[in-house]
Design goal:
Layout: E1 15-20, E2 23-28, H1 32-45, E3 49-57, H2 59-65, E4 70-82, E5 85-94, E6 100-106, E7 114-120, H3 127-134
Antiparallel strand pairs: 1-2, 1-4, 3-7, 4-5, 5-6, 6-7
Helix pairs in contact: 1-3
């Protein structure tokens, strides 16, 4: 049995949504900015490793938090499963000086409720990704 870590799934996203202070901009896979976002993201997570997440997401709280700060959401257009946890979208709060973070799962049945993934950036941080998204 081959176990695929969460890092390998982001390139399968059909769209990427960027939320900046609650304002959502969608980039389709044909868009040049989509490709640039994905390239910067992959550089950020290049040497990362998946760890058990300590927390869970609560849909109402997460939706409210998305109105503030910088967030990126990878939308897949179908249900995918990694580590026995299904999702249709993956959401990340992007902050400077983050060396690890939760990856919040979304399903049409439960919204953002449920267990998360956790990525440790293995000495890297989100600074470049944050700066890049802030300038879009």
């Amino acid at each position: 049995m081959v176990i695929m870590e969460i890092q390998n799934v982001f390139t399968e996203a059909e769209e990427i949504n960027v939320y900046n202070e609650g304002v959502k901009v969608t980039y389709s896979s044909e868009n040049d900015n989509y490709k640039k976002i994905l390239e910067c993201w992959n550089n950020t997570i290049e040497n990362s490793y998946q760890m058990p997440a300590f927390g869970v997401s609560i849909n109402n709280y997460t939706v409210e938090e998305m109105k503030h700060g910088l967030w990126v959401e990878f939308c897949f257009g179908k249900q995918i499963e990694r580590s026995q946890m299904p999702f249709e979208k993956l959401l990340v709060n992007v902050n400077k000086n983050y060396y690890g973070f939760n990856v919040i799962r979304y399903t049409s049945q439960r919204g953002y409720d449920g267990r998360c993934y956790y990525l440790d950036l293995n000495g890297n941080n989100m600074d470049n990704f944050y700066d890049f998204l802030s300038k879009l």
